[in-house]
Amino acid sequence: MNNSKTKTKMKIFYILNRTAFAGFCFAALLLMFAAGCNNYTVSNPAMSHYYLNPDKNLSELGRVAIVELDNNSSYPQINGDVTEAIFRALQKRQVFGLAIVRQSDTAWRSLQLEPDTTYTLEQLMAIRKTLNCDAVLIGSITEFNPYPPMTIGLRLKLVDLKDGQLVWGLEQVWDVADKTTENRIKNYFKRQMNSEFIPLREQVIAVSPLKFFRFVALEIAETFR
After folding, report:
1. Does the predicted TM-score (pTM) go above 0.85?
2. What phi-psi label fits residue 196: left (phi over 0), alpha (psi between -120 and 50 degrees) or beta?
3. Residue 127 CB-density burial (10 A; 0-12 exposed, 13-18 middle, 19+ buried)
4. How far is CA 102 from the centre of its chain?
5. Is the CATH number of domain 45-221 3.40.50?
6. 4-52: per-residue pLDDT in tens?
7. In terms of Cα–Cα distance, which of 163, 121, 113 is closest to 138?
8. Cα dihedral: 11, 13, 18, 20 (round 10)
9. Within a 10 A sphere around the Cβ of 87, how many other Cβ atoms?
10. DSSP string covering 103-128
């Protein structure tokens, strides 16, 4: 194996060790390398902890159901707001059809699935039939701090219900106290707002959960390339 391929493989293993989807992705990558595949890439300077399946075409997924996120934080009321922000950000990307499924939805509850777990192929088939969708985006809020400096952690995955393959996955913590996050927020306002009062608006996002959620959702949506 040449040095280039060795470095690529080491980089992949490093990224996978930093994500909750390591086991699933590791197995998929071993299969890819065994077949001689060397075109796996993870590239986005703002979002380092995500996986995008190189063998999947996002535009061919069809209808995607976004299930309202589970919440492991101490603030149960934020589920709807975070899910809605992600839905709207992905909707603007116009990559695939979208629908939100609330945790209280009768159809979803009838499936009796454990939250934030890996589902079997039989369970995935049941989700497809019950929700009438081709893929499902599920996940959880791992942490949330509403007080400055605001913090939120998310664990998400998009699964193709036709074959059970992981299409996309992410585990990330956004901390406003982090300098790189602060710089991305500045860039966010420069792109989104045409105003000379950008510093003031940067302060607003640091204390407004809804604005913070929109920023986070935009970064998530930008990984769907």
Report:
1. no
2. alpha
3. buried
4. 17
5. yes
6. 444 444 343 333 333 333 343 333 333 333 333 333 333 344 556 899 9
7. 113
8. 140
9. 19
10. TT-HHHHHT-PPTTSPPPHHHHHHHH
